[in-house]
Design brief:
Blueprint lengths: L35 H6 L5 H20 L1
Length: 67
């Protein structure tokens, strides 16, 4: 997997929410691919933490559609 587009320390991570909230059986949003915990903690997360969450979201999306 390539390095995230959100990895620059100078970039502020925007919420990946697409207003299509529906949790799967693992409590992962099928719209933005964040876990319920990540969604709840988004506003308190540092920019580095948000960038890591965004990277995890990309991986989850890729895995879902790679099956």
């Amino acid at each position: 997997m390539t390095k995230s587009n959100f990895s620059s320390a100078s970039e502020v991570a925007n919420s990946p929410c697409v207003r299509n909230c529906c949790l799967d059986e693992k409590d992962i949003c099928m719209g933005c691919y964040r876990s319920l915990e990540e969604i709840l903690n988004w506003h308190q997360a540092s920019d580095d933490e948000k960038n890591e969450i965004l990277t995890l979201c990309q991986l989850r999306k890729h895995r879902r559609y790679a099956l």
